Batch of 4 targets.
Target 1
Amino acid sequence: MRNILLTIEYDGTSFCGWQRQPGKRTVQGELERILSIVCGKPVQINGTSRTDARVHAYGQRANFRGEFGIPTDRIMVAANNLLAGGMNAIDSVGDMRITNVEEKEEAFHARFDAKGKKYIYKIRNCIASAVRVGEFTSGIDVFQKNYCYQIRNPLDFDAMKEAAALIVGTHDFRCFQSSGGEEKKTTVRTVFDLNLTCKEKVLEIPNLEEVVCKDLEIEIIGDGFLYNMVRIITGTLVDVGKGKIHPAAISSIIERKDRHNAGHTAPPQGLYLSEIYFTAIK
């Protein structure tokens, strides 16, 4: 019995999430359809993270077991060809791609053997110093609408970093959990690292003095995450950046374990599953 581990990247825009659903296009469902063709028999895969609709991935992991003749190194080539449209579409690209394939021991499970995950959340914050009504929409970019959270109000980056530092550590993160997810035995999780970076550029727009555009990235590494936890942490940090929540209030929000005290849930399109760890994180 062979056990194959995949690394997968995908643009989540047109997927109804990871998990297979009848009559809906999902990442798991599409991969299983393609792999069943490649392997010549039905394939069912186990994914590490059940990403939501419109959430993207750089490094999703999934494994599947079976007896099939195709060599391991040919699985990726054949599957990617079909994912890109077939007909040896070497110059075509679809919205999903397998980036690595390897064989693992039979007992390995991509979900249950995972020790941690890294997520990245992308925010674009563009502010015009002088706006004539009807001429500019504060840097909103139609071509980025599926790939980041675009915010028109200025964000206090330093306040967001101050708040983020209070989230790092082992806590009961019930306040950052949405209802409706899978019931967990415990809501205690460890956030090993939570970093915010900001790249700034100035856009030249006719009839305006200047438009300052800031691309923010929130990178979070943890041993596991509750339902919508990263998006709620992001929304809370955005509310801190807008001045709606004081940075020092984060500690009491966590201690009170009440979802209503935390910030809003950031939209899914800014979220990227970046990496899965199968060895202990220190």
Target 2
Amino acid sequence: MIFTSKCVVRGVTQFAGNIDGEDIEANTAFIDVELDSKHGGYGSRTAPKRCKDKDVIDRIKHNPFPFIAEVTFQELATKGKETMVITEIKPLSMLKTSDQPLQQKAA
């Protein structure tokens, strides 16, 4: 299953390295998700979402964050396990200053 959604992308991370003899590549986008009011949630929070490969992040990492984007998700299934990954992030517009998170001053 593939679908697209308009999301706020707060940031991205990339990691490629070897941990305990195993090569690992981790590419993550941090996007705003709505909290479920039926379970006591109000508003939104930032959640990590796995990207299919490093090219997804390489194409957008030069943009100033955060921004609004059209994000394409794909559900993948292997050995009875389903995972949702991001296959494309298309920046649409920057967030207004009033939408930016507050910066805390160093003590």
Target 3
Amino acid sequence: MIDSLAAVGRAAPAASSMLDGLASVAGPAMKPTNVTAETSFSAALSAVSQDAVSTLRHAEGLSLGALQGGMETREVVDAVMSAEQTLQAAIAIRDKIVTAYLEVSRMAI
């Protein structure tokens, strides 16, 4: 699941010319650190997906540490809540991309 989320950024190179400028629009859960206003859509999507994967892996690591008794409950809860918010944002972005693709595919030529 996490690896398939990382592949999302590589799946949309054709949409980059149409959707330039959207790179600076990021949700609160998925605020990438390496995206600027001049970044292409595919690069921004790739950066956001990589940040989402790292957030999910961090939460997973903390959860495993808590199972072993080495982590505080508050840290684990914060990480899991952040991961859940990130995953919800990733799903919303995926849904918007699929909707946009379906709209474009229905356009008359």
Target 4
Amino acid sequence: MSSLTHLEKRTFESLLNMGGGYVLDFTDRSFATFFRDVANVNIYDDKYAVAGTSKAKRLRTFWETEPDAVVGKVLKEALAVWTFMGGDQKSSSYQASERAVARLLGQPSPTPPAKDSLDSEAEFLKKDLSKVAVNKLPLESSLVAILEARLKEITQCMVAGSPFAVVILVGSVLEGLLLGVAVNSPEKFNRSTASPKRDGKVLAFDQWTLANFIDVAHDVGVLKLDVKKFSHSVRDFRNYIHPYAQMAGNFAPDKHTAQICLQVLKAAIADINGERGS
């Protein structure tokens, strides 16, 4: 499997517009041709469909299973296609992706990394979020009751030493939470430049992915930058709900993984309630 980090994967997913199952503007035929020409790979082989059959899911399985050199070669050409389509090479996302490709290929980094102002995992876990109040969420009471019940169950799973259950439950609560916020502020979420579109039209909320909700929630000021960053890690973890995807990704969550996920959820609730300072 490649050594792509969760943050690097998320950056590529954003650049390659993978949220809706697509990859850039590739058709099924051009996607197959791209992989064949670049890496002599049959991307429609069954082994790349263990997590799903969409182009995005096949690409995710590809970078989970193939070595750095092969993944780096494909992603380098994908960035070239993105640039040809009008992508801004001066953007921080592009430069981060370019550095990731260079690392995968064992080449010198083409651009120096910017100073990371975001919290490390250790710093994020140290934040005191013990007084987060679910019952203060600006959502309909019936939804709040469900979220409270699931949060209680998450706590029980933490005590019982069931990290995978924590990961899956946190992902479900986070998505329900952000959907509830979006439903209460549809104009704000739909007007975001980060909102997912098809043929120039914003997709209905039931077609948004958790990644979409996270990006738009940050774009409109609902989630702070640290929560956006770590929420995408939760989203990555939750994608291993499929046993074959977990097997392909060699994913084995532990207590630390569960702690990060729970802290992300608490921080998201605090952000929505306006309980965290700038």
